[in-house]
Give the backbone structure.
Amino acid sequence: MRRLFLPLAMLAGCADADETPVGCQALFCDGFEAVTRTDGVQYGISASDHRMNVFEPAGDSRDARPAVVLMGGGGFEGSDLELLTPVAEALAREGAVVGVARYRGGTASTEEEAFARTLRAAQDARAAVRFFRAEATTWRIEPEAVVLGGNGSGAITAVFAAYVTEDEIPARMLAALDAEGGLEGDQGHAGPSSEATAVLSLAGGIYEEALPTETLDAGEAPFFGVHGLADAEFPSGCEAFGAVFACGGQALSERASEVGVATAGVFAEGGGHDHPRETPEDWVPVFVEWMDDQPL
């Protein structure tokens, strides 16, 4: 299987060790062989919906570690968080604190209900970002390095949360926006910023009207996409769905490059919808080295 890589700067990794590698100066830091896990961490106001499993590099003594929030997949109707365990462990071995998060979902039978469901999920994603910033001392996190990502519908959630602004929402959806409490929502940890340092999209993207990928604008968060080019559930490029487009990781990365937003990605020829979460070894080192090259 041939894989396409977007250009990026490559930095030297840290030496292998059982504890924090000596002399590691980068934001991320490879060489951690073991991972510790804490399940059921409540990140928002709901004891049932706002739960995440947190993965950390074992033996890590650093006080300013990067955090990665990963919203689970499952078509917005529920998420098996274990599906992202291999991804979370791979990122933790690179020195990140990783939260794999559940969020409010449910079914939708109308366009307005589908919008409101995505909005609620995005509000929860923002709450998870705020959680890590509010609890930065507890989890030993660098508050300026909180990545927001997800898989499938979780990637749609992350992209929506990071890039959609109120002026980009169709007028017919504004009533639903107001009814749900706006883009930010009130799902916990008010005060810290909910803006992501970067966005990590696995087999997802965004639904848009009119010009595809117009939601991602200059000055917004850097974007890293991982997508199988043979994904039959969500396209890597842009495809029309009635009056809207589904635009995946490759299309969003191209858009980011056009508007001057830092971007990179790994796009696998022949890879299907599950390819990004099933093969973290193919893209996690690329993502980590790209992130280490981004200014905070």
